[in-house]
Amino acid sequence: MRRLDRETVDRIAAGEVVTRPARVVVELVENALDAGAERIEVEVTAGGTERIRVVDDGRGMRRADAERAVERHTTTKLPDGDLRAVETLGFRGEALASIADVATLTLTTNDGGPRATRVRAADGDVTVEATGRGQGTTVEVTDLFHNRPARRASMAAPATEFERISDRVAAYALLRPEVAVTLTHDGRRTFATPGSGSFADAALAVYDREVARESTTLDAGASVPMGDGEASVGIRGLLAYPSITRASADHVRVAVNGRPVAMPGLRRAIARGYGSLLPGDRHPVAALSVSLPARAVDPNVHPTKERVAIRAADAVEGAVEDAVADALSTADLRRSADVAMDLEAALDPVESAPSALGEADVIGQFSGCYVLCAAGDDLLVIDQHAAHERINYERLREAVASADVPSASLDPPATLSLAPEAAAAVERYADELATLGFDADPFGGGTVRVRAVPAPVGRVADPESLRDALAALRAGEDPDGRDALLADLACHPSLKAGDDLTDAEAAGLVDRLGACEQPFACPHGRPTVLAVDEAHLARGFERHPRRG
Questions:
Q1: What is the 3-state secondary structure (H, E, C) of 357-401?
Q2: By CB distance 3.0 to 4.6 Å, which of 109, 186, 226, 510 could disulfide with 312?
Q3: Around 101, how many Cα atoms within 13 Å sit in the side-chain half-sphere?
Q4: Residue 242: is the preceding peptide bond cis (ω within 30°)?
């Protein structure tokens, strides 16, 4: 047994802090925020391995502090060495030193004096010189992992690495709207928030006008029991209306004391606040900042500080859930206006049969939603949207298997405003999207140009279906058949409520549904056909079956 030398210890520590380009960006952005920056510019080249540059207008550093900043475990953020009193995002004093150990780092900073200081650290050598710069700090990181060939070789494609970076920067932009945040990739601006302090303005820059418009802001407070007393909880942020949803929970962003964190408990609390307003398979778009006393949070429980420990976490999550529910109480509630009825007793789903549709005769349509059929002693009620979904899904699945997906060109092309990480994924998954019938490419910022979309069974998919396709691909769902993705694609071109059908069209729909491999459920698992037998109708009318 022997003690490791200091150089080896430092290299191990660097590997814990700097795992990929996104971690470098996070550390530098947090330093800028801790310095009181009102404007932060992030520039990335080639996914971050070639170059990362972060510029801020914060307080900056004097020469002596700048020289010391690249040494390990030097910090101005830890009052009296008490971790319980930490109120900054950084506190360990190892970020810049760890970055300098795996890259070339150039730090240019000025605390408002007549001259700035430039510190360059590369391969263990540090040089310091005077230079010119206004107040603030610029950190440039180049040739990341040049001395870690195995780590560099393990990096994903540049588009994937930038996707991770854009996700992290977008979180800071949304959760710190008082700071103007700009993200640029390979010379092309991805987004720029104005720093107005408005959550809606930040959402407009990161997402699009629809999300900004169809949302409400939240500014609430609560007291929760904590130890022998109580603690104040502040909850601020933006909640998109239930009409704006996503296929994954990636767009539920949470910060604790200004630090974006991956906290499943708080994410679930936000979802519970939406309650029945959301479909079971959809997730909201939300950005909430939770403020707690420093004594209630331990930020030192995760190597990269992506999680924190919260005292009385259940009580805090309950406060978040209540605040979300209260904020949405005056929002768009039309999606929850379902009438409670005992349908289970009256309508039994048809789950299995040799072919209950083989003898089904169309007798009409009800409410522009349902096809009514007579089948022996049963009245069949067919949900035309769910039925068409099943037909589209099986045909699309067959087409994908044969690599021959029908596609329809859009003239002029449609444009979609996507979150930065989703826009980056368009390039990453270009081949997969083409296989599914999409032709799309980035068009600057978060805008994507859609030239073609899937057109299963002659119906053209909505360009918006690209959002769900990207979400499923990014989540790695169904890597072989991607059934969930195909189910989402099948939904968009399918018949909707209010689409009137002629008797011939309705009969054709029933015939096609009956020919499906699984005709009695839509691709999402909901029933397509409900049956009311004659006996049930007779009992309802207090008659005996087959009697007058």
A1: CCCCEEEEEECCCEEEEEECCEEEEEEHHHHHHHHHHHHHHHHHH
A2: 226
A3: 21
A4: no
Report the 10 Å Cβ neighbour count for 347: 17
508 φ, ψ (degrees, to nearest 5)? -65, -40
Contacts with 265 (C-beta within 8 Å, 6 or more apart), sequence order: 313, 317
Calpha distance 288→401 (Å, rounded): 42
Whole-angstrom distance, CA of residue 392 vs CA of residue 387: 9
User: What contacts 24+ positions apart, CB below 8 Å, involve 14-18?
Assistant: 14/97, 14/98, 14/99, 14/101, 14/102, 15/102, 15/148, 15/151, 16/98, 16/303, 16/304, 17/94, 17/95, 17/98, 17/99, 17/303, 17/304, 18/98, 18/99, 18/101, 18/102, 18/103, 18/144
| The two structure tokens encoding residue 95 | 């970020």
pLDDT tens sequence for the chain (548 residues): 655 555 555 554 444 568 899 999 999 999 999 999 999 999 999 989 999 999 999 999 999 989 988 887 665 555 555 555 556 675 545 788 889 999 999 999 999 999 999 999 998 899 999 999 999 999 999 999 988 888 888 898 898 899 999 999 999 999 999 999 999 999 999 999 999 999 999 999 998 888 888 888 999 999 998 888 888 999 999 999 887 888 888 899 999 998 898 889 999 999 999 886 776 678 899 999 999 988 888 876 666 667 888 888 899 999 999 999 888 875 433 222 222 222 232 223 334 444 547 778 889 888 888 999 988 878 888 888 888 888 878 777 776 565 456 678 888 888 888 888 888 888 888 888 888 888 888 877 778 899 988 875 455 778 888 888 888 888 776 433 345 556 666 665 555 555 777 788 888 888 888 888 777 777 776 778 888 877 777 777 777 655 55
Closest CA to 202 of 193, 214, 210: 193
In whole angstroms, give the CA distance from residue 532 to residue 381. 8
Q: What share of the chain is helix, strand, coil (3-state, %, to 5)?
A: 35, 25, 35
How far apart CA 59 and CA 37 sit, in angstroms, is: 7
Give the up-direction half-sphere exposure of residue 423: CA atoms within 13 A in the CB hemisphere: 28
How is residue 204 written in tokens?
């407009």
Which residue is associated with the tokens 């067959």? 398
Q: Is 184 left (phi over 0), alpha (psi -120 to 50) or beta?
A: beta
Other C-beta atoms lying within 10 Å of the C-beta of residue 444: 11
